[in-house]
Every structure is written in C-alpha cells, then in structure tokens.
Design a protein that fits this description.
The chain is α+β, with helices and mostly antiparallel strands. It has one domain: 2-Layer Sandwich (Alpha-Beta Plaits). A five-stranded mixed beta sheet has the order 5-2-4-3-7. Strands 1-6 form a two-stranded antiparallel ribbon. A hairpin with a 5-residue loop joins strand 3 and strand 4. Helix 1 runs antiparallel to helix 2. The two termini are about 15 Å apart.
Length: about 100
C-alpha cells in the first residue's frame, strides 16, 4: 500500500453485502469485476454470512462496481447492500480476496 497523494480523485468506501452471498463464488466474481472496472481494495466473508469489501477508486468506477454488487454473480441472492465512506491515507495497488 502507498500513501495517497494530496491531489487524488479517489474515494474509499466500505461495503457490506447481505443475502445468499457465501458459497456462491461471490468473492471471486467480485475480484474479477473489480479488475474490469479498475477498482482496488479487498473483499472478504464475515462470520454472520455477509460479505464485506473495501473499494477504492474514482467515483464513477466505484458506482459501477456498486451497481454490480447489488446483483452479484448468478448464484447469489443479494438482499441488501450498505456502504459508508472510509477515511484512509492508504492507496491500494490491486483488488484481492482476503
């Protein structure tokens, strides 16, 4: 991770996706979609059955990935997607499953 330059046009958000999102390839599909949209960060399963992701990118790229997360891969059944801004001075180099 690198420190963000002062003149960045990046935003960072934490997203929580609830529904049938574990055991259906949600994280792997999210990694692929993030690479396609140019978003960086990470995605992981939570103990309560939901999925959490940190997204970092330009607002338009994050919006595209958020739109995809609302549906997810074909086997998923997304019930709710919530997100909030995350304040960080870190810049992620890639998007990965953790």
């Amino acid at each position: 991770m690198k420190k963000l330059p002062n003149d960045h046009n990046l935003e960072t958000i934490i997203v929580r996706i609830a529904g049938r999102v574990q055991g259906v390839g949600f994280r792997a599909a999210t990694v692929r979609q993030a690479h396609l949209t140019g978003v960086r960060g990470w995605v992981r399963n939570l103990d309560d059955g939901s999925v959490e992701a940190l997204l970092q990118g330009t607002p338009d790229r994050i919006d595209r990935l958020l739109a995809w997360l609302r549906a997810g891969p074909p086997a998923a059944r997304v019930v709710e997607v919530t997100h909030e801004e995350s304040h960080t001075e870190r810049r992620f180099d890639r998007f990965e499953q953790i």
